[in-house]
Amino acid sequence: MSNPATAPQNIESSLVENRVFPPPADFAAKARLGHPADFDALYKLSVEHPDVFWAKEAAELQWTAPWSTVLEWNAPFAKWFVGGQLNVAANCLDRHLDARRDKPAIIWEGEPGDGRTLTYGELHAEVCRFANVLKSKGIAPGDRVILYLPLVPEAAVAMLACARIGAVHSVIFGGFSADSIKDRLADSGAKFIVTADGGWRRGKVVPLKANVDAALKDSNGAVTGVIVLQRTKNEVPMTAGRDTWWHDETAAASPDAPAESFDSEHPLFILYTSGSTGKPKGILHTSGGYLLGTYCSTKYVFDLRDDDIYWCTADVGWITGHSYVVYGPLANGATVFMYEGAPDTPAPDRWWDLIERHRITICYTAPTAIRAFIKWGDQHPAGHDLSSLRLLGTVGEPINPEAWMWFHEKIGGGRCPIVDTWWQTETGGHMITPLPGVTPTKPGTATRPFFGVDAAIVDDAGAEVGPNVGGKLVIRKPWPSMLRSIWGDEDRYVKTYWSEFGEKGYYFTGDGARRDADGYFWIVGRIDDVLNVAGHRLGTSEIESALVAHPAVAEAAVVGKPDEIKGQGVVAFVTVKGGQTPSKELADALKKHVGASIGAIARPDEIRFTDALPKTRSGKIMRRLLKEVASGQAVTGDTTTLEDLGILAKLQASED
Ligand code: 7RM
Question: How far is the CA of 287 from the centre of ligand 1 (A)?
């Protein structure tokens, strides 16, 4: 008898979403791309003649030596703009000085309410000063520098200073522990660290310097220096000969630093993501292609203009902070707003207050944040004037249609397009996304591929499947901002991304998805999380969306648990909205609700109410942990990315 749990079969799909939101006419009229026919022509060019398309876009950047070949592709190794030279920091700063010297580049607000604005001229000077400091410490092109900082302007300054001198930065989330720093130090071979005394989060000091000290405790002395930014002014011990203060170092440094030229394929940064095996993967991005990908997507996807006040709420420790707080917007000469702290400090309306006071026009955030705001109540945004907003965006997870509609109505006032952008640390920039002036949107889908992206849904053999059939999401052609390798582990790079469909030259994303009759992509979840219930393969996101559509539910995470008869049973972890009480009746009602909205096969066997779900710092639900909790196993593997370890203990305790 064939085992239903292993028989190959396509992922099934039954979520029906009929709402369509065409771009508002006044938005389209002013947009960079406002006519669907223009988009279609440009998209066609970008996939049929990528060399022509990308050469034209790349010409908008500043190159100090021209490239000879746009792409050299020895699958799975890509080189973009071969022979070309540039300086990434000069493209983000110097290039704008003539026209934008006095334009704000960064408007920052700290959690306690302090703030700072840096014009392009000022940011340029700060970056040059810090570049000179790093150079004086002996940092040379190719050297790795760890940045472990709060979300303050100096984080961007340090990143750009590394880029300016050709050093390779590796930003570590301020929320990560001393152990994570230790692992990343060892893997990257970094010899220098930039940190702060602390950062503010919910009124408390995040002890950044103390974590660095702990990470360096039994180190072999490979780290030669630590520069410490004074942010929170808490007492921190300084190790003589190793630790110095940012303000002392920069006080004497010259605000001029020549921007040297680097090869287009010179490494720009390593960003670690937690692999499923626990050993962090250092995703390697290089210069020309990455800058072009983020520049071009920021320009088109956010339809950026000079008078925008653009806010991407991500921390710089996440790829979204690299691509869409720092490199993409600054390469476009934009005004970037940054906020250091928590969304509910001092009150749950902090973000709406920020948008009102700073007249923010674009807000790009994560579904997890939106679901938290829904839980906290509509009165918080309702008390603020959000009329400055003209465009909204989401990233990080499939957005439940319910959360999309709330964002659209309560934040966007029904007038702002929403760009739901699908992409990965590995892709460097947006891959599947609406363009706000041309793409009709539907709640819950990232819609269509971006320029130059050849995305497809394939079965296990790599053959493209038809409309509405679930399968694996692959990218069939290289793109400029793609990762180049895993730092120090080329084999792992090949195995992880190119072994599944490698002989066809397809990049495997690890995501399951389907494409609807309009060619829109619906992400159904990570392939590793797909359930197999009595031979039916079900993605997690549709069941979760059905649960979140119930008026009592704030958030849901669905996982499988071993079941003798069905192969896997469906377990749903659910948090309820304010004013709702978990009960047996509610659990029964939710099971019924899922059965009625997407079918009996998806009906949860178990509903487990919880106060919170385990998430990464970037807000992704850690289903791997929930799977282990659901089946009563000990939790193994990497928990270093978990935002709040206490949640895990609570979940385990609440098992019966
Ligand atoms: C940018 C980022 C990547 C994974 C990716 C997906 C999921 C991200 C969306 C999404 C549905 C989206 N980088 N994901 N964006 N799923 N719709 N708009 O998140 O490396 O941290 O994660 O995130 O599973 O593979 S990441």
Answer: 22
